[in-house]
Amino acid sequence: MNALTLGIEEVKGVGAKRAAVLNEVGIHTLGDLFYYLPRRYLDRSRTLPMARAPIGQEVTLIGHVRQMRFVPGSKPRFVLVVEDETDDIACTFFQGGRYLQRNFEEGDELAISGKVDLFQGRRQMVHPEYEFIRTSEDDLLHTGGIVPLYTSSADMKERGLRNRGFRRMMHGALGAFADQIEDGLPLAMRQRQGLGELGDSLRKVHFPTSMDEVAVARRRLAFGELFDLQLRLARLRKKRLEQPEGIVFSESQKLVPQLLASLPFELTAAQRRVGAEIYADMQSPQIMNRLVQGDVGSGKTLVGLGAIIMAVENGYQAALMAPTEILAEQHYINIKTLVEPMGLTAVFLKGKQRKALRRELLTAIESGVAHIVVGTHALIQEEVHFARLGLAVVDEQHRFGVVQRGALYKKGEKPDLLVMTATPIPRTLALTLYGELEVSVIDELPPGRKPIRTALRAPDRRDAIFEFAGDQVRQGRQVYVVYPLIEESEKMDLKSAVEAYEELCHGYLAEFEVALLHGRLAAEEKAEVMDAFKQNRIQVLVSTTVIEVGVDVPNATVMIIEHAERFGLAQLHQLRGRVGRGGEQSFCILVSYASAGAELSDSRERLEMMERTQDGFEIAEKDLQIRGPGEFFGTRQAGMPEFKVADLIEDENLLQSAREEATRMVAAEA
Ligand code: ADP
Ligand code: MG
Predict the structure, then answer these.
(1) What count of Cα atoms within 13 Å lies in the side-chain half-sphere of residue 654?
(2) Most buried among 37, 190, 197, 556, by the most CB within 10 A?
(3) Ligand 2 center from residue 96 Cα (angstroms)
(4) Which atom of ligand 1 is nearest to the CA of 296?
(5) If phi over 0 gives left and psi between -120 and 50 gives alpha, with beta otherwise, what is residue 437?
(6) 130-167 as b/e: b if 16+ CB within 10 A
(7) Residue to probe by mutation, ligand 1, list 581, 584, 586, 614, most atoms within 8 Å of CB
């Protein structure tokens, strides 16, 4: 029996009512309970006697409530006097006095944390954080000097599961069940990795005798989570590799060489290497499941196209799915231009198309007349049937959920799958998210690209900025201006793209063709604007972030990003990647008041990083650190696993070890 799967009601003192409030916070089983880790710890051995609490510093003090009172006056306040053997301190609250008064009783033992200051010659803390330690002796019996503090919901508090009550319950539960927890990790592995036993680690993470013990126990728990995930991924990988039931394509004799010969440039070494990896996958009887990572402009599309025409040469259809209509259409146009001379038919499927045209396209796809089908998620709609889908390519995949990736895959009879992403995914995340995929990296840009010059400028430099942009246009170049919002919001005083567009048309850029692109335009209008920009009939494109992904206009050399502090680093990097695609020197100007004021130093630090580096991986790592994995990917839809203990940033090395152990275990499995 494994105690972790037992229901929470098995715990002494937990009846139906307590179980219900615990369920609300996701605690259903003993496992859930034991993995509900302390929010923080109070290390009593490190707290100071009050008499020695230094003025002006953040400290934690422990003492008993001696007195409570309301002090009237111009600044009415509630004062709680807390004392220990050495001295006392006044805790002053300007709000919430009524509630607090009901909350405390004289004699309560409290830990208070905050900055100590002097008021009328006495020590005080204003609005300290406080924790109840105990009112009775039994509570701390087994905690040594370190007290775990837990987060409790309002309902939990109501049911006596605030810190103290919760602690008592946890202590009882661990006492009763920790010995009956099965450790899923084999002893040999734990010894190799220097990990403790699971039940013991859980006990120690809740009731440690030192903070070092907490770190060691936590490491065991985090490893377990990472290992479970890696084991699942490793098994998937193994299963796929062991089932030789995918399509065996033969090497392209004709079309790929023909494509390469038609290009005005040579492939980079990285493109060739990744191409070869893909072709080898396609020729093997295993189903391909490969992720191609490459920074913006590294030339992923061509690599994908090589795979596409190889599939077609073998008598199969290929599909390419992109996250936005603009991007899909751009792919379609590029691909069509390249493959039509080869006698291949490419079609474009999107959300809104005329009925007659749509029917025609669907027929072409179903009959196999269409060799290559490019589109948005319209490709995975029910009424789309392929005659013989052999290869599914998904571009910019982090925008799609795992589900959509799978849906496209199901349109064929075990087709090969190629996923391309421009977001340089930090290693830890790649291992976590795509552990079941093979990964290829295009780590080289086509030659002759000049590094983009990036500058951070304050908004009051706008005259100079647009004068510069105008100069570039006069030299025949094109300009992007990007805004974070499309309509003025009352609260945030951001200039909307619409307003800015009006202003630029009549002001700085009046002599040029300026167009506005935003998410609310009809798809046809968007396509028209993009088309005109591609052909240089429009010189300045004012836009919201719809241009972020994949747009390719090599003649554009200036990217002006307004309110740059509003964008994430990865997003800025993507935006910047829209320029620097041709032979001319390109520029990225980040306009932000964060270039000046000290109060925005965080934003400034981020933006200065953009000035400093153009390395997508470095930027992505930093972005991940700043925003955390959830937001980095736009949360759960990307299939981010959630860990209770492990931290993808902190535990990078642990993840690597977990992966190695998982691979080792799976290799040994029959
Ligand atoms: P990505 O999708 O990786 O951002 P693209 O595939 O859109 O990059 O390629 C960016 C641009 O670089 C395109 O205009 C493409 O034609 C061009 N390109 C691709 N490979 C090479 C190469 N080896 N040499 C020169 N230009 C290239
Ligand atoms: Mg691309």
Answers:
(1) 23
(2) 556
(3) 55
(4) 4
(5) beta
(6) bbbbbeeeebbeebebbbbbbebeeebeebbbbbbbbb
(7) 581
Which ligand 1 atom minimizes the distance to the CA of 554?
14
Q: Output the pLDDT for position 1.
A: 59
Strands 372-375 and 478-482: unpaired
How much is the pLDDT for 636?
A: 39
Q: Using a 6 Å cutoff on CB, does residue 265 contact ligand 1? A: yes
DSSP state of 295: -
**Nearest bound ligand to CA 263?**
1
* Adjacent-strand bridge partners of 587: 453, 558
Best CA proximity match to 147, nearest among 113, 177, 194: 113
Q: How far is the CA of 197 from the centre of ligand 2 (A)?
A: 47
Show the tokens assigned to 162. Answer: 């605030």
Q: Minimum-distance ligand to the CA of 581?
A: 1
Choose among 110, 120, 139: nearest CA to 50. Answer: 110
Ligand 1, closest atom to CA 268? 23
HSE toward the beta carbon, residue 138, CA cutoff 13 A: 6
**Ligand 1 atom 20 nearest Cα:** 299
Residue nearest atom 6 in ligand 1 by C-alpha distance: 299
User: For residue 23, what is the enclosing H or E element?
Assistant: helix 16-24
User: Cα(395) to centroid of ligand 2, in Å?
Assistant: 7
The whole-number pLDDT of residue 494 equals 47
| pLDDT band at residue 548 under the 50/70/90 scheme | low
Centre of ligand 1 to C-alpha 352, Å, is 29
* Rounded Cα–Cα distance for residues 403 and 553 (Å): 32
Q: Return the half-sphere exposure (C-beta side, CA atoms, 13 A cut-off) of residue 32.
A: 15
Which-ligand-closest: CA of 396? 2
The least confident of 89-93, 176-180, 398-402, 621-625 is: 398-402
More confident: 313 or 351: 313
Q: In the predicted model, what is the mean pLDDT of the chain?
A: 85
Domains and CATH numbers, the chain: 47-135 (2.40.50.140), 255-442 (3.40.50.300), 453-613 (3.40.50.300)
Is 423 touching ligand 1 by the criterion CB < 6 Å?
Answer: no
Question: Is the Cβ atom of 393 under 6 angstroms away from ligand 1?
Answer: no
The pair of structure tokens assigned to 333 is: 């146009």
What DSSP string runs through 37-61?
--SEEEEGGGPPPGGGPPTTSEEEE
Residues in the 5 Å CB sphere of ion ligand 2: 301, 550
Sheet holding 540-543, edge to edge: 453-457, 587-591, 556-561, 478-482, 540-543, 514-517
> Residue 534: CB within 6 Å of ligand 1?
no
Q: Is any ligand 1 atom within 6 A of the Cβ of residue 582?
A: no
3-state secondary structure 525-536: HHHHHHHHHHCC
Ligand 2 centre to CA of 287 (Å) is: 24
The pTM for the full model equals 0.66
Cα separation, 4 vs 198, in Å, equals 11
Strand, coil or helix: 66: strand
Ligand closest to Cα of 292 equals: 1
What pLDDT sits at residue 493? 42
